[in-house]
Design a protein that fits this description.
By secondary structure, this protein is an alpha/beta fold. The chain has 18 helices and 21 strands. It has a 7-stranded mixed beta sheet with strand order 8-7-17-18-19-16-20. The chain has a 5-stranded parallel beta sheet with strand order 10-2-1-14-21, covered by helices on one side. A 4-stranded mixed beta sheet has the order 13-12-11-15, with no helix packed on it. Bound molecules: flavin-adenine dinucleotide.
Length: about 500
Amino acid sequence: MSLSKQQIHISRRSFIKKMSAASSLAALSPLSISSILQGSSDDKRIIVVGAGLAGLSCAYELDQAGFNVILIEARSRPGGRVRTYRDSFADNLYAEMGAEYVDSTDNFVKQYCNTFGLKVLPAKQYDGVYVRGRRYSMKGIQSGTDLLPFEGIQKGKLFGQEVQYIQKWIDLVKQKGANSPEVLALDNMSVEEVLKKGGAPKDIIDLYTYTNATEATSVPSKMSALYMVLANSRTSAFSENTVEGRILGGNDQLPKAFAKRLGTRIKYSRSLRSLVFNSKKITANVIEDGKRTSIKGIKCVLAIPASILRTIKIDPGFTSGKTNSIQKQEYGHVMKIAMQYRRRFWDDNNSIGQRVFTDTSLRRIYHFSIDQPGPRGILLTFTSGEDAKKLGRFNENRRMKVAQKACKDIWPESPKYWENGITKYWNEDPFAKASYSLAGVGQKGYREILAKSEGPVHFAGEHTSVHRASMNGAIESGLRVSEELKRAL
Ligand SMILES: Cc1cc2nc3c(=O)[nH]c(=O)nc-3n(C[C@H](O)[C@H](O)[C@H](O)COP(=O)(O)OP(=O)(O)OC[C@H]3O[C@@H](n4cnc5c(N)ncnc54)[C@H](O)[C@@H]3O)c2cc1C
């Protein structure tokens, strides 16, 4: 479903034509814009809900193909869980408080970055480890001169310590195939259970909490064993060696680029409350400036997280399988904390490094502003699972105290240079209420069910994608739905 070069070329040319139409629309008064919208016929309109990367990419592709699209967004900005804070720091520094990394395999993201002239630069890899109160260098761990203080580990690596305890299931995948009943049965067990069954000591489960479970924003007892075994049956499971990139200048440029091209087709500050549909038409009931309005169309794309979709009234309701998956889809907890320091002390000679893996409640702490001019710099943290939940119960002041203390433990001189900081806890965000989706125990078929259209309603969003929990997955889902609609109409 990826776009060919030729398609991109055609899109760019037709965009120029559309941009002039959009700018002439923008010059009209709000009244005349709404009368134009009313004038465009309801029986042709596609209503896309949610201007995250899923909804944006879907609306963009439909718009480029000449469909009548309207994109409704609850916030006053595009991007959803892609969120770059630009006003919170001095010297024009910025920080990613939502999605950050573009992996080398994230082809959908990279393709649109190309289209919009955005550059992806490599990020820094881990160079330090701070666990159980001690500092280690990643080089020391990888060369085997430093041994992590966890029982049952193997020398030479940080991630993937669980593999030796699940080898018999990895072999089973190789012998019987990923879709065999024996392998699929692993979905009924949690990561914690299967590790215990494989003889892993508690320390290995603890370490998994800080490695992969932190990436998934969850805990080993809530994660399906099936996906851990499948991930390790491939050669590409996430590790300290994964090469990650970031969009130079900030990830928000990608959603903004889509939004710019969609122009007035996006309606901000409109929150979907209920959806009424039959086989011929759809009415989306929306709150705008505290007042209820209705938007009618022929098709609808719900590109909002399942954590929000479960709060929307649907009449006459979806199938029981879909409703069940929407209600139960597992999500994690995540908080990011950005701290501005006057000086980049993490570059000093005696420093543990710039990107540190920890078992503190901050989990990952790293120099974010690597490609931004100093002398000031930003340390960013990625806190997830139970620690994010715990910090989420604290007020901003207390969260920041915990963060400063963890940084002091790692870089004792850090308090001298601290200036200010800010947190973003996604589970308290009214339009996300969660981190991102994960494969929960017993949730094997959920993703396919969540992705399947029901009557005139189509579903996009990272939770519907094979590349879930990523910007790449969000875009992949948007493209999938745009193709579904092109075929259907
Ligand atoms: C802290 C954090 C770190 C992450 N790190 C990475 C990373 O490093 N790399 C990566 O690739 N991905 C990362 N992700 C995941 C990535 O951000 C998401 O997978 C992706 O952005 C989801 O896009 P989406 O369009 O599916 O959903 P969203 O971005 O959530 O978009 C949904 C949109 O719907 C809107 N909406 C919600 N309710 C309503 C309503 N009732 N009416 C109208 N609109 C509504 C929301 O405001 C939002 O704009 C991270 C996410 C978080 C939170």
